[in-house]
Amino acid sequence: MDETFYDVLRRQGVSRRSFMKFCSLTAAALGLGPQLAPTLAHALETKPRIPVLWLHGLECTCCSEAFIRSAHPLASDVILSMLSLDYDDTIMASAGHQAEAIVEEIVTKHKGNYILAVEGNPPLDEDGMYCIIGGKPFVEQLKYAASNAKAVISWGSCASWGCVQAAKPNPTQAVPVHKVIHDKPIIRVPGCPPIPEVMTAVITYILTFERIPELDRQGRPKMFYGQRIHDKCYRRPHFDAGQFVEAWDDDNAKKGYCLYKMGCKGPTTYNSCSTTRWNGGVSFPIQAGHGCIGCSEDGFWDNGSFYDRLTKIKQFGVEENADVIGATAAGVVGAAIAAHAAVSAIKNARSKGDNE
């Protein structure tokens, strides 16, 4: 029988207590609640590790770089035990014919029982010759590896949407994975790169429940892409109050006001950056003082400058843009001050008359 995730952990000296703590944290990350931690533990104790083929097309390796640099156990230490990562040409020891033989073995021996993870995308121009793997166009390797896969996971915006390679004028005719693979379930996990814990949690869900997570209409897991960054952003109260950064070095920036006027795409970007955050939950771009660039959305490279403001975005419960609301808020405050002064003057006048 193949080793389970728990078998590997025990062999590495991980205690039962630490294992259950991991299951509880993972259940929370998946939005399942602590009551399902035992279900997760049972799955990891009894089910064999999932074979995974991790392919690389046209990309910058940012997904792998983010993945291996995470300090969170979900995305670094534990994932290498939970999964049987049989092929990843970025980090694997083998090379050449030995490496390519692994793909052949997994595709033939684990038919319908392995996950194909794809980072990057295939170029179609010149018969795919702009990306060669093992002497063949990457698009051929992608089609072959997907032929017997249980499901395909598109890591990052390159595989999910095409990203910078597919940006205009797209000289190599780079396309996202779903433009090539049409007969397999495809889970898109966009981001440039995606959050490591999100990447890990998607596979954990598949391992535990033996099905793909619930997806939105664009094929993204709802548990991580169901809300806008704007909805959970800690600067949201400043947006609603009409308090915006007007220049990178102004007093409003120092006060932590909303970055919407500086081009922040949080109101149109669906991701969990503002809740899960990065580097073990330490921070995310907006917290670091830079607006969201919308990297997990389709075509973000062709949507104008990262610092162009989306002037048509409405505020919560308001039908005006940021400029109007800012002016209105200031006007309301001024009117309130004037009204207060007028009432005070009337009261003083009445009091003076009564005394006389």
Would you mind describing this structure in some detail?
This protein is globular. The chain is an alpha/beta fold. The protein has a five-stranded parallel sheet, sandwiched between helices. Helix 8 links the parallel strand 6 and strand 7. The chain contains 14 helices and seven strands.
| Strand residues, percent | 5-15%
Structural class: alpha/beta
Sequence of strands across the biggest β-sheet: 2-1-3-6-7
Q: What's the overall geometry?
A: globular
Order of helices and strands: HHHEHHEHEEEHEHEHHHHHH
Largest sheet: 5 strands, parallel
Fill in the keyword field for this structure.
single chain, 356 residues, alpha/beta, five-stranded parallel β-sheet, two-stranded antiparallel ribbon, 7 strands
Write the layout of secondary structure elements.
Layout (H helix, E strand, L loop, with lengths): L4 H7 L4 H14 L7 H10 L3 E7 L5 H8 L9 H4 E6 L7 H14 L5 E5 L12 E2 L2 E2 H9 L4 E5 H5 L25 E4 L6 H14 L12 H4 L3 H4 L3 H5 L10 H4 L67 H34 L1
Helix pairs in contact: 2-3
